[in-house]
Write a structure and sequence with these properties.
By secondary structure, this protein is mainly alpha-helical. α1 packs across α3. It has a domain of about 60 residues.
Length: about 90
């Protein structure tokens, strides 16, 4: 599937009903959580391609990414930030 905009890989995998690790393994050029911002050919299991297209088409652009902005403060650590936001540390580093 050719994408012209970014999308959260977890959101796409969950919506299409495939494991996140499978989608990430097929798309190593993507960062750990989203497709590239300037267009990307997204690979997925053949049966899921139609679901990918439906999910992408039905989501408004603002809903395609689930990113949060965080200003790092004195004493912040990556593990503390991850814990506060309920995400695994591995999702923060690559």
């Amino acid at each position: 599937m050719d994408l012209e905009d970014q999308i959260d890989l977890g959101l796409l995998a969950d919506s299409a009903g495939i494991p996140r690790v499978a989608l990430r393994a097929l798309n190593p050029a993507c960062n750990p959580w989203a497709t590239l911002p300037d267009g990307h050919r997204l690979l997925g299991p053949a049966p899921a391609e139609a679901r990918f297209e439906r999910v992408f088409a039905t989501l408004p652009p603002r809903a395609r990414l689930r990113l949060r902005h965080h200003s790092v403060g004195r004493g912040d650590t990556l593990s503390a930030i991850a814990r506060r936001n309920g995400i695994p540390l591995e999702a923060c580093v690559r």
